[in-house]
Amino acid sequence: MTKPLLSIGMIVKNEARSLEKCLKALEPLRNALPCELIIADTGSTDATREIAQRYADLVFDFPWVNDFSAARNAVMDRASGKWYFTVDADEYLDPDISQLVEFLSLPRDKQNGFAAVVQRNYHTRDMAEDDYSDFMAQRLARRDTGARYEGQIHETWPQGARIPTRLLERVILHHDGYTIDDLTAKKAKMERNLLLLRQELANHPKDPDRLLQCIESSRYHKDERMGYLYQAMEFVQGGQISSANAGCVAPLYRYAVCTALEEDLPQAEEWLAWGVEQPFFQSIICRIDVSASAAAYYHGKQDYQTALDWVERYEQGCTDYWAKRYDLMEISRSAPTYAIPNSMLFGRLLRCESLEALGRQEEALQGLEGLDLRRLCHASTLFLRTLGLLTRLKQVWEKACALYSRILSALWALDEPDDTQVQELKRACILQAGQIFQDRSGSWRLYSQAPRDLGRSARVMDLSEKKALAEELNTLECWKDVPVAVVLHAVEQGVALPAAFYQQGGERLRTIAAALGEAPTLRTYLPQWATCDDFRASMIRFQFLFQLSAAAVRGADWEGGSGLMELATLFIDLAADYLPALYHPQLLLDEGEWLVLPGLHRFALYLIRANTAFSQGNNLEYVRALKAALGAAPAMKHMVDYLLKQLEERQRQNASPELLALAEKVRAILAQYPPDDPAVAALKQSDVYQKVAYLIDGLDAPVFGGLVQ
User: Fold this and answer.
1) Quick one: which H or E segment has residue 503?
2) End residue of a domain, out of 164, 179, 194
3) What is the DSSP letter of 156?
4) What CATH number corresponds to the domain at position 1?
5) What is the span of the domain harbouring residue 75?
6) Is the pTM here over 0.85, yes or no?
7) Can you spell out the DSSP letters for 482-496?
8) Start-end of H helices in 78-121
9) Quick one: which of 329, 369, 340, 396 has its CA closest to 164?
10) Quick one: which of 48, 245, 346, 432 has the fewest CB in 10 Å?
């Protein structure tokens, strides 16, 4: 075999998920140049070793000693190529290897001893082509440099080689190792790294690289991470970082000031103002990440103009990043965090929200027009914030409504029943629509062109002609997606609900009835609506009508207003028919058995009894029944008070001239004494006073004060 030009080295453990894809991606390089592939297995228990043996020139066991450098150096010890190239099992070499082949084929005097390639870190498992961040990772070393790995974790070649002398920007290792969905697995990996890094930092307390790595691995240890961040600012502001490690300055400052801004620490604005004046602030990392955090910080402080200024700096930084208008050395220690599409989407939203807050609604709308709707549909929080912003753009209302509908249509066009995030977002939109419809100010027109039942519901709200309204109601298919305000609109217009409405199930209908009970207009329109359909022909419909009347009496303001007696009468009349249909007649005959019934049903039964007594002129029985009703449902005290006042008013109207004259005499006598005089108490115990008490004090005192019971 020809002596290899390139040795490709790997260390693996339980990498069956990704290893074969990785090794297949290396084949074009191995075919283009004399290569050898050496793999150390540090203790796999899955199919890793079998896969490795199908591709590698050498596979050997290396017992894990909690030291990544030891494992990598063991691989290097077995290499024979002029160059050594490190690849991980969750990385895939890009098919374009032309720059790498060209570099390795140069004469020695035109080469460099070390070179870095692009490690492209993806953020989604499908490795979306626009959702990643690039990092210049030093992976190539000429073996005659004597390079050896150092460090138990995040191992690197020696200090003098850490600054690559050649950057191969077209050689890309696509990396999906950061797309772990399992939070437990993520935390476990971080814990493993941090355990080793703590010791590394303790051994090298002035090493900014180790400090940077500790910050990145301590995400789930807030207090510890804050300590590292304060130490980072001491390093940066104290000038303690050597020129060889100058690439650490911007990443360290970025982590410190971004956290200070996000946590609203007292030092946040001071650190930000200091950093802006420093040369390193022009690095792509600061221009993107610090600007993004500053924009969010000032937006939260409602300093919208300053937020807008920072957003513009952030967006320019992202534009330069994706156009590669920066020095690649700036990402040789760390990559920007907020250059990814979802972060840029958030930046766009911050800009538009700031513009709206500054009264620049036309500009805000223009900013929203260019959103990537498909990506927005997979970012639930941003999606709902965007819809919320559109509802505030009253100056450009028609255009806002049109965009609102396009965004909803984009979401409903995603036919992804297994995507729980999409399905939950659709439900959230329906809930948000319910709130907007409830406003009753015409904001429902945002949904006029929305897909399916949301659009139909909006069109229903604009109809008042009964026939047209009934026809549109019949077009609604999935009533669980229909805002409750649509049902209230039908009640107000006196239009019967279609059969499909009543097929939602008892629990859903109870929820709708309870929600409608909070509407002030329900009590006014319900008695008339109760005549628009043959409710008693269907137990489900009749049950809903009764529940609706119960919700109306609960939510009514019994202190005053019109239509209260009509509402009370409706509730009592419905209860008189509904409860006997619901319960066995024998149960309703025995008052002692009523204790097993729900409080509201017992309340209704006593109201039926009171209503009968009222019609018979039996005032004493009427009062006793109302008192029993109050005991069954104490929360209905205001309704009971109202019904008592109706009796009082009737008694006043029916009182004889002689009784009225007697009441005036008693009132005159009482006026001669202070309220706490014993003579007053004695008079109120007399038979004469009892005859006219309700004409003097009303019914509350004798009924609930223990005098006429």
Assistant:
1) none
2) 179
3) B
4) 3.90.550.10
5) 1-179
6) no
7) S-HHHHHHHHHHT-P
8) 98-105
9) 329
10) 432
> Of 524, 517, 528, nearest to 466 (Cα)?
528
Residue whose pair of structure tokens reads 């009640």 in the numeric block: 491
Q: Say what the pLDDT of residue 534 is.
A: 92
Q: How far is CA 219 from CA 110, 193, 325, 361, 691, in A?
A: 43, 11, 30, 38, 80
339: number of Cβ within 10 Å: 24
pLDDT of 501-526, one tens digit each? 999 999 999 999 999 998 989 989 99
Q: Which of 156, 179, 202 is the last residue of a domain?
A: 179
**DSSP-based three-state secondary structure for 333:** coil
* 3-state SS string for 604-626: HHHHHHHHHHHHHCCHHHHHHHH
Does residue 528 lie in a domain region? no
DSSP letters spanning 445-474: GGGTT-SHHHHHHHHHHT--SHHHHHHHHT
Cβ–Cβ < 8 Å for 38, 78: yes
Q: Which residues have a Cβ under 8 Å from the Cβ of 260 and sit 6 or more positions away?
A: 229, 267, 268, 271, 272
Domain-embedded: residue 127? yes
Task: With residue 132 as reference, give the H or E element that holds it.
Answer: strand 132-142
pLDDT tens readout for residues 3-58: 899 999 999 999 999 999 999 999 999 999 999 999 999 999 999 999 999 999 99
How many angstroms separate the CA atoms of 364 and 350, rounded?
Answer: 10
Banded model confidence at residue 245, pLDDT cuts 50, 70, 90: confident
Q: CA dihedral defined by 400, 489, 505, 473, rounded to 10 degrees? A: -80
Could you say which DSSP state residue 160 is in? Answer: G
Predicted pLDDT of residue 188: 82
In sequence order, the β-bridge partners of residue 404 are none
Is residue 434 within 8 Å of residue 427, measured between CB atoms? Answer: no
Alpha-carbon dihedral 94, 99, 105, 107, rounded to 10 degrees: -150
pLDDT digits (tens, 9 = 90+) for 585-618: 888 988 989 999 999 999 999 999 999 998 887 8
Give me the mean pLDDT over the 490-504 stretch.
95
DSSP string, 517-555: TT-TTHHHHHHHHTTSS-GGG-HHHHHHHHHHHHHHHHH
Question: From edge to edge, which strands make up the β-sheet containing 91-93?
Answer: 58-61, 35-41, 6-12, 83-86, 132-142, 114-122, 167-175, 91-93
Query: Measured between alpha carbons, how far is 423 from 416 in angstroms, rounded to an integer?
Result: 8
Task: At 264, give phi and psi (nearest 5°).
Answer: 55, 45
Alpha helices per DSSP H over 90-146: 98-105
Cα–Cα distance between 348 and 339 in angstroms, integer?
12
Task: Give the H/E segment covering residue 205.
Answer: none
Give how many domains the chain has, as a whole number.
Answer: 2
Kindly state whether residue 37 falls inside one of the protein's structural domains: yes
Question: Which residue is associated with the tokens 């303690």?
Answer: 240
Question: Does residue 131 belong to any structural domain of this protein?
Answer: yes
- Structure confidence by residue, pLDDT tens digits, 406-435: 999 999 888 777 778 888 998 899 888 988
Q: What is the pLDDT of residue 13?
A: 96
Compute the distance between CA of residue 100 and CA of residue 8 in angstroms, rounded to an integer.
Answer: 13
d(CA 222, CA 228): 10
DSSP character for 16?
A: T
Q: How far is it, in rounded angstroms, from Cα 371 to Cα 364?
A: 12
Q: 11 to each of 68, 89, 141, how far by Cα in Å?
A: 9, 8, 17
